[in-house]
Design goal:
Length: 173
Amino acid sequence: MLAYLFLLLAVAVRFMPHPWTFTPVTGALLFFGAYRSRRELWIPLVLLAISDLALNRFVYAYPFTLDQLVPFAWYAGVLWLGTKNVSRAVLPAVGAALAGSVSFYLITNFTVWAWMDMYPKTWAGLMASYVAALPFFRHGLEGDLLFTTGMFAIPLALRAMSPGQELHKPASI
């Protein structure tokens, strides 16, 4: 249940005013991957894809282009990374959040450089794309680390507060 609440929070925050890329998306995907079954992994992909399409169409007024499929693949990759976080502990989750932030920065900015005409198709153009995105990377990294830490700490705190529960028992969320 908690994984679904975090997923709904991640989708809702995308429609609210927030600093660019400071969202709980990475944390929610990692948590969902860690705590839900593989049969359910399509749910966050569909919800985030729909929210992407709605934001691009109705908020940003972008036409649909094939480069918009890149974040969908990234969502799948982060979900998969969450499934590998079998310990469900905060420290591995923070490492996964860091990997998620760095991969999102590298992949999406490479896509902007390759797909759009904003930068020359040279090494210098690619580097200019990455440099221009550094402020967004900072916000994304901060959000990913904050939300992921909080999301993975909540079950531990709930178990610690439950009478008769030991911290090392696996969660049943």
